[in-house]
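Annex B, item 7. Sequence and structure tokens for protein A, then protein B.
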Amino acid sequence: MTSDLDIFTTADTAGKSKKFGKRASKEQQRTRGLLYPRPDVFPAPAPTRRRSIRTKPPEPTGHRAKWVFMGAHGGAGVTLLTRMSSYPHDAAATRLHQGADLGEGPWWLAAETGTQWPLPPLAGTKLVVVVCNTTLNGIEWAKDVALQHLSGTGPEGITLLGLVSVADQPGRLPPALRNSLHLLDGLYAHHWQIPYIPQYRLITPTQTIDPPMHPAIETSLRQIRTIIQKGL
């Protein structure tokens, strides 16, 4: 199997191969350094900026989630993302029922815990992806959620996979918000950005017809599954 480092070593010269290999190694070290707490490096947020721990299983119940979407704040979009994580599973179940042979595939689902941290024994998973919108309030909460984890003041046993930021307006963000959002890359191992999608503003919690999946969401979910499948 070809690894990312193997791909880098296909450069034309030994010097380029060595350079890109070192760059890949540094990126892997940076990524792994943000998955788990490092209280000797990161300060804790103020007590009033820390999220509580959920003391019951995540939603929806009835399936074993591979990871949990946690909102940095209310209205971030965790319910919609969790719902859309079931699309390939639902399609696969339908095809299997029709007799199709799908082979092996990561038909993994997500669950959600609102704005609370999951408790791994209850959630059935220790993997968390935080979701925020791109308002200043959303970005600040995403920063504090990451710091709570990295400082060791969050629940034990959590692996923070990354952040999904959902644009709250069309077009480019103002420079101040863009810079603040960019700074979150120093706190999260992975960052998936979802553009403003106006039709999603019309979705209600009781809507029974599944909304279409935007390509950016499909890509983000696929990449999350790939990271999990590769063992982080």
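Protein B:
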Amino acid sequence: MNGRRPVLVAPDKFKGTLSAKEAALAIGRGLAGRGVEPVELLPIADGGEGTMDALVRALGGRVLATEVHDPLARPVEAALGLLHGGRTAVVEMAQASGLWRIAPGALDPVEASTRGTGELMLAAIEAGARKVIVTAGGSATTDGGRGALEALGARFTPEGAELDALRRALHGVRISVACDVRNPLIGPRGAARTFGPQKGAGPEQVEELERRLRDWAELARETTDRDPAEEVMAGAAGGLAGGLWAFAGADLRPGAALMLDVTGFEARARAAVAVVTGEGRLDEQTLGGKAVFEVATRCRQSGVPCYAVVGADALDAFGRRVMNIEVEAAARGGRLASIEEVERAAGRLAQRMLSARPESAPRPRRTRRSSAPR
């Protein structure tokens, strides 16, 4: 890196236009093209779709494909990520149980099952993983994780739960669930009433799912002494998070925080002269713990300057002060930003960074040759 501290480029996906990797490449090109070099790319995610890919790329892992069942019990091929020589696995539940697996006209929110997610977890354990990170986002399901637990060996009957086979399967295995929402399992903000309509549930089906989740929480409380009903984040992925927490002893973690911890973000940020993050739309939801907010918070705590290239900027001045961040928007008028617009916005940000740089900031190169990522 030419003996100079890099700028760490750590964006989330730009929903609807760019993956986190594509966004990082575009921002990196825009910065380097205006002389802000070297850059280090670290695409990030918040526990939803794309988290597995981001972790595998950041940590040099590998992807393992296996056959599982989709939410409607059809056989499909899905992938899981293996990190740290296979000792850690990343299971992105959307790979098997995601809404994208089902055509809009075929949605069945009452019957949709997380069984395929449990099959991916079992494949990870059989491959040697001792730690399994389950990323909970983009689900088609509201089964409280029952299907996943059954795939791992649990048996549920009207009389109760038989968990011996589940405990044997998970012996010596630590499970963490990366959650992209903070909703509890039941109630007005619970999994059924908040997210059921997005999965095709009508009003009557929403109430049926709510009753089923209430019964599920009661079973968990009677069987394990863990009550997921009001547990923060238990409603992630249609209650998958709550089911794994109650019956499998999983830890529930905010997805963005877990992602940054696993990738060693803070050490990378402290080694950088500045951090440039980004997402498709910066707004009040960002302040609720999304990946960009977590990046900005950790930069502030570490004393590292933080900037953002975003598709659209709908955050007010107070919100930007809370985040302690400088923002460059790529598009206007509510449009989705193209990859070219993101790259140009990064170029404009580079000019601002150079014009206001402290002594330790990146300096423009004097040569015509560029190390811009391609």
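Comment on protein B: The two ends are 16 Å apart (CA to CA).
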